[in-house]
Each structure stands twice: as C-alpha cells, then as structure tokens.
Amino acid sequence: MHIRLLGGLEVTSGEGQPVRFATRKSSLLFAALVLAGRRGHRRELLSEGFWPGRGDAQARNSLRQALADIRRWFPAGGSAAVSVEGDQETVALVVRPEKVDILLFERKLAEDGTADLAFAADLYRGDLLAGVAIPDGLDEWFGPYQSRYRQKALQLAERLSLALSHVGSAAEAACERLAERLLASDPTAEAAHRALMRIPILRGHENVALRQFESCRALLKKHLDVEPEAQTNSLAASLQLRDRGGYRQTASTHNSASQPQATPAPVRPHDQPSVAVMPFDNLGGADDEYFADGVVEEITAALSRVRDFFVIARQSAFTYKGRFVDVREVGRELGVNYVVEGTVRRGGDRLRISVQLIDAETRTQLWSDRYEGAVEDIFEFQDRIAAQVAGAIHPAIRGAEIELAKRKPPTNLRAYDLVMRAYPHLWSRRKDANDQAIELLRKATAIDPSYGRAHALLAWCHASSAAFLWTEHPERELERAIAAVEAAGSIADDPTALAAAGSAMSICGDQERATFFIERALALDPNNAWAWARFGWIAIYSDDAIRAMERFQRAMTLSPRDPLGFNMRLGVATSMALAGSLSQAIAIAREVIASHPDVIMSYRYLAAWSAMSGDLETARWAAQKLLAAQPGFTIAQYRSLPFFRHLPKWADQVAEALRLAGLPER
Question: Rounded to two decimals, what is the model's pTM?
C-alpha cells in the first residue's frame, strides 16, 4: 500500500486497490491524521474543526463515522501497515514511514547524496493536496503544511541544481522536472527559475539560461511588480561576464556579414501587429538540428495563415540563428511587436518542445507551453505542434493588443483600436457587454467604412442578440446581422471576418452561405478554433451529430482556454442529445452551469433535456432559473429562431419538453 499527499491525495490499500472513502471529509480527516503523525490530534479539535456549527454531540458523531470509514479500509491487526489508534481524548494514525510520500520526502532531504535528493525531487509531484477541494475553515489545518512542503521543495531545487556535476544524469532530469512543476503552480518561484538557469549552463547552453532569466524577470514584474532577488541577478550577471560581447558562440561562429540588417516595417492594413518566429535552440545533438529548424518552419507557416498579424519571413528571422540577442533588439531590427522563442530537446525516444511568446518592447512573457511526442512520429509531431502553437499564440497576441488599445486615450483611437476594444465584449455572455461591442464596432465602421472585419463582427453581435434572446424583436436583429454581412464587402482573405460572417449567417438560418464562409476561413487558417466551433453548430443545424462532435473536439483541442469554451462544451452536449445520449448531455450542461452560472442558455438546455429524460424536478428548477434571468422568455419566441427550421422534429421535441418544464408558451 502507499499514501500520496504530494500532488493530490492518493491512497492504495494493502491489496493494491484504490481507496475511496465514503465522504470528502473522511478523506481530508485521513490526510490530517497522516500529517499529524504519531502525536495525533485531540478529538475535540477535530470535531470542531471539521464539522463546525453542528453542536458538540453531532460533530463528535460525525467524527466517529469518519473514523469508522477509515477503519473499514485499514482494519486493526498485528501486521497492518496503517492503523487508527487513540483513546477518549486523542486519535492518531500509525503508518510505516516507507509507505507515505511525505515521510520518504523528509527522510531523503536529510541525506547529502545527490541520488537521495533526486529521489526526493521525484517524490514532489506537486503541492500538498494539489487539486483537492478543501472547504472553507479547514485552511488552518492544511495551509501551514502546504507552505512548509512547498518551501522545502524550493530549497531542494536550489540544492540539487547546485550539486549537479555532469550532463545527462538522472539527478539533472529530476531537478528539471521539479523546477518545472514548481513553476507550473507559481510562475514567480525564483529558486525554480535559478535551477532552470543552472541546468542549461551545465549543458553549455548559456543563451537558454539567459532567456530563463528574462522570463523570470518578466513574470515577477507582471505578477508581483518586483525585480529579481540579488541571487538571481548575480547568476545572470555571471553569465554576462563570460563574454561581455554576448555568448561565447557569437565571436567564434558569426562575423559581421551574418548580422541582420534593419529593414523597414511593411505597410500593414489597419496597423496590425507583427511577429517573428526565432530559430529554436537545439538542446540535443547535431542530428536534431534539422528537426528544430523544421518545427520553426511549420510554426511560421501556420502563423502566416492567421491574418490578424504579420509574420516576418523565415529568412530574416534565421539571421539570428546560433547567438543570443535581446528581444528588444529583434523588435527594433525586424520591426515586430512580438517574438516567438523555443527549445527542442530529445530524451531517448521522446521529443520535448518548449515555446514562449514575448512582447518585444517590454520583454514580458505573454504565453508559454511545452509539448512532448515520440521520435517515430516526428513529422506528424511537427504538424501537431505547429497547429497547437498557432492556435494558442493567436489569442495571446489578440489579448495583448486588447490591453494596448485599452490604455490609449479615446481621442487617439483608430478603427483597429476600436475593434480590439470590442473583442472582450464579443464573448462576455451578457447583453450589456454585447451592446458595448455593437457601439464600438459601429464607431470603427464609421471611421473606416471599408473595414470588413468590423462589419463582420458587428453581424455576429446582432445575431448573438437574437440567439440569446437579448431583444424583444429578434427578427430585427437578424435583419441587421444580414445587412452587416453585406456591408463587409470583400473579406475573402480574412479568416476571422469569414468566421464571424459564417457564424452570423448560421444563426440567421442560411446554413449554405454560412458553410461557404466557414469553409473559406478554414482553408485560409486550418487552426481557427472559432471557425471549427461554428462549423460544429452548422453540423448540428444540419442534423449531423457525429460530424458536429468531431468539429467541436477539434476546436477545443486548438483552444483549450477559449473564452467561448462554454459554447463548445454545450455544442458537444447538444450533439449527444441529438444522438440520444441525454444523460451525458445533462451532465455537461450541469458542468457549464457550475462554472458559468451567467450563461443563461445553459438553463434552457438543461430544462429541455431533463424534461425529455423524465427528470421534471431538475427541469423545473432550470426553468425557474431561466425565467429569473429572462422574465420575458417564451417558447414561441425561442421556437421562431430560424436556425431551428432545418430540425423541425427536434424543435417540436424541445418545445414540448420546455412546456413540461413549466415555461410559458407566449
């Protein structure tokens, strides 16, 4: 058996079976007793702390039930690895130290050997009880332990990185994994950043170490508005002193003829931002160089399909290959706002790629991620990474441009800035925000009547107003949406505008024209998550649940943190409902309501699907929630929306279910 508290809560019985306690309180009580060790806790404190406000007798009874639950899994016995012991006043959990990760962690930390420290590093699979929902009031039990073990892990990362002596050791890999886990939960952990600086120094990749320092500095500024500690600055300074002109590579492998020449920035419609994909650092052998260059080529090509920004040609970016340059210098010389950097590393039969997007002016890291794949799938891996990186960088750059537009004085706003200001309101799920987006987009089209994207996004807003029933006259909003699509003019080379126009036309009921727009958008940019999501809804309105499911899954893979993620999830649920899997559809609707209670359409779906499944109690609860948020909702108004016209039988079933849920007909 084993007990894991670092990185979650996982308990295995002596028979090797996963332990599933009857209640969450039982599992947390078990964790509290493990942490207390042989000294245990007073019963009175446990009952008051875990069951506050219940009264002394009821709280003690709850404690007894929880302890009985634990004893069922670990009955008393002479050879038992775990047992509950105590008297009328105290209770303790007696467990063999080798069975508990935190006890092994402590034991290995007390040793001086590098192998012992590496063992401890691999034991720290995350913060104490990470991901476990801890109710309010129990922080006092677990908070101090969480802080204590995290501090020990940070000290371990420091110790182990300083103890490393040669490349390729198991200790080096364990140290790197530990530092990355620490940064995943706290990007400002400087001890972890320093460890990730020392490891590439050991490997002879000082440029990677300096980039880690720049990332550390940007994250500290962003999250805490502070500068790095003296120890971190000192480590970076030691790198600079190795060669005052840059990295050792620079003088030996490059001459003045290879230096990039400043080029004038191209003329960009609406003054769009631009990005350069820099050569990735190859942290493996010379045989991996072609793969690193291939990844950059694929990412550059994928980003070039996105018309929201310009991508500098590969030939210009590759003049920097093999030497360290400050991103500000790249920004000035190539005339770009954003820089993509990365590393490629081979470990056995696995490849790991790390990518980050940096603001060239402020050096702020806007986004980063890591990808792994098998060597035998190397070219498929290249394509997949390129698609996922493009899918993630697109919204990251758009988010940065939105923040930049917000900081500009209203008197200096151009059509492009107004569109950027409108973007956050496009996905907000609220009527007032949608109205703000309409106002901003109208101003943009007034400044630049030929701005096709502004017209297309305006069409989407008017269509959303009808679909969400934010208006008493949805037919009027649909007419405005069609008019805005017509006013967009030529948008044939703008995937975002095409996706917006296609989305609007789909809601307006013209699935044939919507399909034309969406397919054109995906031909230009196959990684456009919004286009894939709306393509999913087109499949639903065409009564093709299987194809709809595939398209929604593609959209969620490309943009896992999408602001319209709730809509994609509801699309998956609707596909399941159409296919007859009502229980799964209901489960997803409940999840969306739990995470986004302001998405009113979720209650509409839950009411209908629950009524169809015979659960009228849930259906009526959802109907009441819907009416509380939309008092004017009627089945007739909802049934009249044009996207239902291709699904007459399903529309009738939904209408009847909403009647059973108690919603008004008119």
Answer: 0.56
